[in-house]
Amino acid sequence: MKSQKHLLTALILMCSTILLTTTITQFTTTPVTIIARADSSAYQSISDIMPNQKLQELVLYNMKEQGLVDSSTTLATISTADFTTALGQLTSLTWDPGTPGKDQTYNNLDTVVKNSNGAIEPEVNPGNYSLKGLEYATNLKTLKLAADSNYGSKFYRGDIIDVTPLENLTHLEHINLAGNRITDVSPIDHQHLPNVTWLDVSGNCIANLNVLDANDYTQNFAWSEQIIFHSPITLHGNSYTWENVFKDALPKNSTNSAVGAPYQSKNIELAPDVMGYFIPDYPHYQQLEVWQNGIARGGTQTITGDTKDNITFTGLAQQIKPNYVKNDPWGTTATVINTGSKTDSYYMIACYGTSISSDTIDYYLPYTIASEINYTIHLVDENGQSLNKDVSGKGYAGDKVNVPTIPGYTVNDSKVVSGQVVIPEAGGTITVVYKKNANPVTPVNPDTPSVTSDTNPAVTPSSESTVPSKTESRPATPTKESFVGQAVYSLRKIHLYKNTNFTKAARKASYSKKPRPYRPMFVVTGYRRSATGKLRYKVRDVNHASKTDGLVGYITANWNYVRPVYYQSKYKTLTVINPRGVNAYKKVNLTKKVRNYKQGTVLHVTKFIHHNLTTRYVLSNGNYITGNRKLVKMGKQKMPRYVRAKKDLKRYKTINLTERNKHIKRGTKIRIKNYDFSHANSVTKAGTLRYHIAGGYITGNTKYVKVIKR
C-alpha cells in the first residue's frame, strides 16, 4: 500500500513535469504577434513629399553644398525624415550652371521635364515641373530656378507652371524664376511673401502681373516678355472688338520706360499675320511654334476707342482644328511643333511694348465663330396639349429669346426666367408650359420672339467697378412664374411658421441674424397672403448642415428681412467674401472646375448670365463663377491683411475658440490668412468674427485687435 502511494506520487510528479514541459514547449514554439502602430508619415517616401525627381536631385545637391547632409549621401541612402529635416534647414536653392565647381550632372538640372518639347502653349507642351515639396523649405531665403539656354535642354523656357508651394515661405528675399511658363503669380506676391525685395519673373506666361507692385521690390524687379494664352471665346460673326486690352495688365507703380511702363495706349502694337517662337537646340534652331493671326486671309485689325485702348478685328477666318501649319512660314528648316487635336490655327493677337521686335506682353486669344441655328418654341398647356401658337426663329446657342404672351394664359415653366428661355446647343424644339388664367390678361410681348445676344463678349478685365447705390432697389411684387423656385436668404432674425398668420404658437423654427456667408437660406415653393393682406413666401429650408434642413413653412416676404441669394445685375468687379473662396468652372452649369479663388480676390467680370433660376458671372478668362451673394460681393472690397494685438491674446485651434494653443503678447503684429465667423452651421447662434492666422484662430473683437493694413 505504501509502495502504491509512492508510485502514485511519482506518477503525479511525472505528469506535472510532462505537462509543464509541454506548456513551456508550446509557448516557446508558438510565434507571438506584436502589433506596432506607426504614424502614416513613416510610410511616406521622398517621392510622396516631392514627386519631381529632378527637383529632388537639385535639392540634395544644394543640401550638400550647405553642409546639411554628408557629401556621400544619395537619394537612395537618405531617409525621408532626414531629407525633410534638411529641407527645413535649407536657406538657398539655386540652379546656377557653368559656375566653378559645378559638375555636368548639376549643369543638366534645369527646370525642363523629360516629356517637354520646349513649347509655350499648354495645349502643345505637356511638360510640368512641379515645385511640390518646397513648402517644407520654411527657412529658404534665396530661390533661383531660371532658364539658361546654354545648359541642360538648352530651351529658352523651363516648365515651372504653378508656384503655389512657395506661398508660405515667408523668409524668401530673392526669387529668380525667369524663363518658365508660370501663369499665376499671386502666390508669391508681396501679401504672401513680404520680405522679397529681388524678383525676376520675366519670360513667363503671367496674366495677372497687376497683383505685383514695383515699389515692393527695391533691389530688382523684372517682369517683361510675357506670352499669355487666353481661354477660347465664341463669336457671333467674324468681327470682334477687344476692349481695354492691356489697360490693367502691367504691375502697379512700374516706371520702366524700356518695357513701356507705366501703361500708355501708344505702346499697343498691331501684330503681323503670323508670329513664331523658335525653340533652340544649339547650334541650329530645329523647332518652332507658329501662331496665325485671324485676319491673315484678308481681314483687318485697327486700334480703336476714344482713348485708343481697344483693338477691333474684322474678317476673321473660320477656326481650323487641329492647326494645319506644318512648315515654317519663314522658310527655315525648323520643324513646326503642333500637337493635340484641340490646337487652334487662328488667334486674335495683341502686342504691347516699345517695338514689335521686343514685346513686353503678347496676348493670344483663340476663338470659334458660331453658326446660327433654328429653334421652335412649342407652347403647351399643363396637360401637355398644344396651344397651336408655336413660333420659330434663328439664333445662337446660349442666347435668350422671349417667349410669347398668350391671352388668357400665364407661363408656368421653371426654365423661363424673366420671360426668356435659352436656345439649346443643338437648337430644335423648346417646349414651354402655360397655365390657363381665371381671368384673361392683355398680351404684352409679341408672338414673334426677339433674340438678346451678346455678340461682343469682353475678355480683358477692367479696373473700373460698377458702384451700386447703398440700398438696392426692391423688385416689384413677385409673380409665381418669376419667383417660385428661386433661393432667398434672411438678413435679420426671422421665424418659419405653419401658416400665413404669424403667431408664436404657429412658429416651427427660428433663424438668427447671421454674417453674410452664413445667412439662412430657403427655396421659394409658392406664396400666399395673410388675413391682413401681407405677402408670405412658402419655402423649404435648405440649410443642409442644420437640424432644420427640409422644414417647410411660411416666412415674411418683407424686403428688409429677406432677399434673393443670387445677384440679378452685372457688375464689372466682384470680390470673393466666402472664407473657403469661390470656384471657377469651364461650364455655365458649374462643371469642369478650373481653380479656386481665395477670399479677398478681386475678379473682373465681362458678362452676366441667367442659368435656370440662378445667375452666373463670366470672368475675363472666359470661366464661370456663381452669382451667389454668400460667396461674392459686388465691387472691390477691402480685406484685412494684418492686425496688431491691443491686449494680450490667446490663439485657439478651432474657430469657436476652443483648445487654446498659444499666448500672443500685446503689440504683436499678426498676419491674417482670412477672416471667418464662429458657429457657421448654426441657425440659432449669430456668429462672431474670427481671424484665421498661422496655427489657429484669434478673436476679431476690436477691443483686442486693430486692423493696421488692408
Automatic annotation (TrEMBL):
Q: Where is this region: Disordered?
A: 439-479
What top-level branch of life does the organism fall under?
A: Bacteria
Q: Does the keyword Signal apply?
A: yes
Q: Which SUPFAM superfamilies match?
A: L domain-like (SSF52058)
Q: Which residues form the signal peptide?
A: 1-21
In this chain the DUF5776 domain maps to: 566-632, 637-705
Look up the coiled coil feature and give its residue ranges: none
The record's keywords, sorted A to Z, are: Signal
**What's this protein's name?**
DUF5776 domain-containing protein
